[in-house]
Amino acid sequence: MDASPLSIGIDASRIAVAQRTGTERYTYELVAALARVDRRSAYTLYTNGLPSALPPLGPNMALRSIPLPRLWTHARLGPELARRPPDVLFVPAHVVPTIHPPASVVTIHDLGYLAFPQAHTARRRLELELTTRWSLRAARLTIAISQATKDDLVRRYGADPARVRVIHHGLGGSFRPVESPLEIADAQDRHGVAPRYLLYVGTVQPRKNLERLIDAFAMVADRPELAGVQLVIAGGRGWLSDGIERRAAGHGLAGRVHLSGYLPDEDLPALLSGALAFVFPSLYEGFGMPVLEAMACGAPVLTSSSSSLPEVAGDAALLVDPADTSAIAAGIARIVGDPALRAQLRERGLARAATFTWERCARETLAVLRESVEPPV
Fold this sequence. Notes:
Blueprint: E1 7-11, H1 22-37, E2 42-47, E3 61-65, H2 72-83, E4 88-91, E5 104-108, H3 112-115, H4 122-138, E6 141-144, H5 147-157, E7 164-166, H6 181-190, E8 197-201, H7 210-220, E9 230-234, H8 242-250, E10 257-261, H9 268-274, E11 277-280, H10 289-296, E12 301-304, H11 309-313, E13 318-320, H12 325-337, H13 339-353, H14 358-373
Parallel strand pairs: 1-2, 1-4, 2-3, 4-5, 5-6, 6-7, 8-9, 8-11, 9-10, 11-12, 12-13
Helix pairs in contact: 1-14, 6-9, 7-8, 7-12, 10-13
């Protein structure tokens, strides 16, 4: 492969988001890792206005702010690419603009709107359907963040598997076990968390299966091994989140189910480290980054046996059927009541998480970007 320097344009519009979850975190961490592993290519990061926080950028990375209130991708980014086209355009978390260089690469994270359509408005589903189909056609190569997502793209949209590359996410260095009991207790106090707790972290929306998680917790909350244990649901509110609050109130578990809201990044490692277990019985995930973050902090993990989650968790988590409330309840009781199991999952999880690095993700992504500019055979 030709290793000559490339000019690489990146749609970095998602970097500007203040509360980074999922795709925003992926964009931020991947750009930071590319800055560490590649000092030869010339990067232009396109943003819609000046971001409030940027990852550490390399000297070969330039920021290009091209603000426009609406239709930024097609009306502002596209014409900019036409005026000064890079060798390759990388779209890590958005849609390929209508005007784009022939060598364009897009990352598609999941097809959750098809797997769980009731979590989206009809208008949003149509938008996601059209933009995903368009990006698959427009991009020379597509990156899927898991084999499960690639399989979905091939099955649902007839994507050519030869044009889809699987590259797993990395894991930020800030996720590591917090050993200080005082630091853990301080984080618990700041967020109203009890000393013994199960923790969920992610967007509060129906596809995360939180109503069933609350029902499962209610089934075993009175068992002796769960005495005083709190279920903490941490995350920003998403589509149809009100029903989750009503579900918690309906079980009469005042103080036992705690919706803490969005947790700042600086508090996550301590709260993950202090949890009895991390519980993530999501119905569908393109990757499931919270599972890896929990493992890296030493939290035993209970997660789903469906979508990409077994692929990410390997043998380092207790897997349950996310559609079976009784199975989730049994898993909760088992993981809380078995210290030996928790110790085993902690050890396996730390080893598993260590294999996912953003440097590896960046190098593999850079290889795909280079591949996209090679003349077709």
